[in-house]
Amino acid sequence: MAFFTMKLKSQSLRSTTTVRLYLPCDKTDTQSSEINGMMTLLHGFTNDGDDWVNCSAAIRYAADNGLALLIPDASNSFYHDTATGQAYYTWITQEMPALLQKMVNLPWQREKNVICGLSMGGYGALMIGMNNPHRYFGCASFSGAVDLQMMLDAAATHPEVQATFAPILGQNLLLSPDRDLMHLASQISQMPSAQRPKVLCTVGRQDIEPYMIYPQNLRFKAHAEQLGLDLHYLEWDGKHEWSVWDRSLVHAIDLFFQPGYAAQKLQDWATT
Q1: Do residues 261 and 75 lie in contact, with contact meaning Cβ atoms separated by under 8 Å?
Q2: In 111-230, which ranges are E strands?
Q3: For the structural domain made of 2-258, what CATH number should be given?
Q4: Which of 95, 101, 115, 112 lies closest to 43 in space, CA to CA?
Q5: pLDDT at 27
Q6: Which residue, 58, 81, 129, 210, is most buried by CB atoms nearer than 10 A?
Q7: pLDDT at 29
Q8: Can you list the residues of the chain whose pLDDT is less than 70?
Q9: Residue 57: left (phi > 0), alpha (psi -120 to 50), or beta?
Q10: CB atoms within 10 A of CB 254
């Protein structure tokens, strides 16, 4: 394997930022050296991309399936070009890929690229994936804030909501249609099926306080069903925690790259 932690200077962010890259390059001489696909993994609020490396088995799962991992940092931006001038959406969708294409031979074809994230990153993964269906054939949210307007509507009685989102959206907390997952789901539902990204949402049933993540996911699921959108939805007992997100990553690999992988891992974990 090869794992790189890169400090890249971004014009969009007007600063340096960290990007992590895992490459499954330790195959035997009898195995193909081709990378089967690439997963971009997005982190949650108040955290960074190190969480995916330190708190999950993402690298082991990627190695099992010959996948590259791309793990950028995005501060607390919700992956927006923020009102305070940090253009994380532009960085992740335009500038970062352009820089990496000059440095590393990665599979950039649509049919080999998915984007996944947890919590804030779950929102970011669906927002970026549904805005860029020409780039990603799949996007996945693990315990994601998939109905951001539900959170914004609570700003009047929850000062922390105003404090979190004002630097991102401005003092009026206006969510534009291209950042609203409900609107984006409506858009992609009208596309030809071959051009739509596959969408996966997973969530723990006890993930309620303080962000109402489970109710948000139920509303997004109902909206997708009303649209006739082929949403892959999984829920099980759990809170806002790594046991949910590690398990979710296995199911994402199963859906996007290796059918049967989730059942294989379940068997690995089973005891007699």
Answers
A1: no
A2: 113-118, 138-142, 198-204
A3: 3.40.50.1820
A4: 115
A5: 63
A6: 129
A7: 55
A8: 27-33, 272
A9: alpha
A10: 19
The pLDDT value given to residue 32: 59
Place of tokens 């440095």: 103
pLDDT digits (tens, 9 = 90+) for 65-78: 999 999 999 999 99
pTM exceeding the 0.90 threshold for the entire prediction: yes
d(CA 79, CA 77): 5
SS3 72: strand
Do 183 and 224 form a contact (C-beta atoms < 8 A)? no
Q: Are 227 and 185 spatial neighbours (Cβ–Cβ below 8 Å)? A: yes
- What is the model's pLDDT at position 30? 47
Q: Angle at which helices 242-256 and 261-269 pack, to 10 degrees?
A: 140
Coil/strand/helix, residue 239: coil
Residue spans per domain, the chain: 2-258
Q: Which single residue is written with the structure tokens 């994230």? A: 117
What is the distance between the alpha carbons of residues 94 and 6, in angstroms, rounded to a whole number? 17
Cα–Cα distance measured from residue 198 to residue 10, given in angstroms and rounded to the nearest whole number? 30
How many Å apart are CA 26 and CA 66, to the nearest integer? 10
H/E stretch holding 155 reads none
- C-alpha 163: how far from chain center: 23
What are phi and psi for residue 256, nearest 5 degrees?
-90, -30
C-beta neighbour count of 21 within 10 angstroms: 19
Name the residue type at position 178: D
Structure confidence at residue 31 (pLDDT) = 53
**Please, what is the average pLDDT of the chain?**
95
Task: Collect all residues with Cβ–Cβ distance below 8 Å to 243 and sequence separation of at least 6.
Answer: none
Counting beta carbons within 10 angstroms of the beta carbon of residue 157, is it exposed (0 to 12), middle (13 to 18) or buried (19 or more)? exposed
